[in-house]
Amino acid sequence: MARGRTNPRRTLVIAAAALAVLALLPSRFTRVATSFAAEPALIALAPPSRVFTLVADFLRPTRVRGLADDPAIREVENARDEYQRRWRSAEQRVGELERLLAELQGGRALIADVGYTPFAAPVIGRATDPSSGQLVVRGGRDRGVNPGAVVSASGVHLVGRVVAVNARTCEVLPITHPATRWVRVVVDTDEPGALPIAQIQPAGPSARGMLRGELDADSPPVRVGQVVRLADDTWPASARSMVLGEIVEVAPKDSQPLRTVITVKPKIDPTRVSQVYVWIADAPSGAQEGQR
C-alpha cells in the first residue's frame, strides 16, 4: 500500500522542471497551450483586474489632452470632435466616390459601402506575451469581432486594431506599437481644399508612445498643435478620419533638409485606456432578411 502513494516531493520537482522548460521555450512553441489556458484565466481574473484598473485610473486619470474638466463642457467638446471627424470623413468619402465614378465610367463594378456600429468594452488586461504590448478587451466572437476590427477611445481617438479574436475576448495592437508600421494621415488645418498628407510610424525608443514621419513633397506647411487624422486605405472605413494625435514637433529631415518631418503625440495614451469602442461591420440587409 505504501508503494501506491504519490510522493509529493517528487511531484513538485517534476512540476517545477516542466515549468522551467516551458519558461525557456520560445513563445511560438507554447502558443497552443497558452491559447487554451489564457482566456479562462483572463476572464476569471477580470473582476479583480478591473478593480485595480479603476483604482489606477482614479489615482492617475486618463484624460484627453485639451478637453475641459467640466463634464458638460467636455461633452460638448467630444461632440465637436465627432462632427469634425464626420466632416473630414465626408471629404475623404467624396474623393472615394469620385474615384469610383471614374472606375464605373471605365466599366468597373461598384462595391457597396459597409456601415459600422461600435460597442463599448472594458480593457481587462494585457496579452499573454508581455513583450507584445497588446491590450486584452472583453468581447470576441460572441460579439461578432473579427481580426482587423478598429478600436477607438473617447469617441474619435484611434487606439489600434484587433489582431487576435477568442471566444469572449480579443487582443488589440495599439497604434503606437512598432508592429503597426506605416500609416497614411492628413493634417487637419481647419481649412477646405487640399490637406497636408504624411506617412508616419511609431517613433523609436527616444520618443516612445509617439509617431513620426515626413510630409509628402507637395504638401502645404504645417505647424505644432494641428490635429492629425487617419487617411489610410488599408484600414477599414470605420477608422476614416479618426484622430491619431496632434503635432508636437516640426523639423527638417536630417538627410534631406527640404523635406519636413513631423512628430505626433496621441491626445490619449492608447496603452492606458480602461474602456474602448470596437467597431463591427453591419450585416448586409440581405443577410439580415435571410436570418429572419
Structure explained in plain terms:
By secondary structure, the chain is of the alpha+beta class. It contains 4 helices and 12 strands, in the order αααββββββββββββα. The chain has helices spanning 8-24, 27-59, 71-105, 285-291, and strands at residues 116-126, 135-138, 150-153, 157-165, 169-174, 183-188, 197-202, 211-215, 227-230, 243-252, 260-265, 275-281. The strands form 2 sheets. Strands 1-2-5-4-3-12 form a 6-stranded antiparallel β-barrel. The longest helix has 35 residues, at 71-105. The protein is globular. Residues 103-112 and 287-292 have low confidence and may be disordered.
Could you give a quick summary of the protein structure above?
Strand 10 and strand 11 form a beta hairpin. The chain has helices spanning 8-24, 27-59, 71-105, 285-291; strands at 116-126, 135-138, 150-153, 157-165, 169-174, 183-188, 197-202, 211-215, 227-230, 243-252, 260-265, 275-281.
Overall, the morphology is globular
Profile the largest sheet. 6 strands, antiparallel, barrel
The tally of beta strands, per DSSP, is 12
The end-to-end distance, rounded to whole angstroms, is: 65 Å
Beta-strand percent range: 25-35%
Q: Which structural category do the helix and sheet elements fall into? A: alpha+beta
State the helical fraction: 25-40%
The average pLDDT score comes to 77
Strand order of the largest sheet: 1-2-5-4-3-12
Uncertain segments: 103-112, 287-292
Question: Helical stretch count?
Answer: 4
Give Rg in angstroms. 23 Å
Topology as a string of helices (H) and strands (E): HHHEEEEEEEEEEEEH
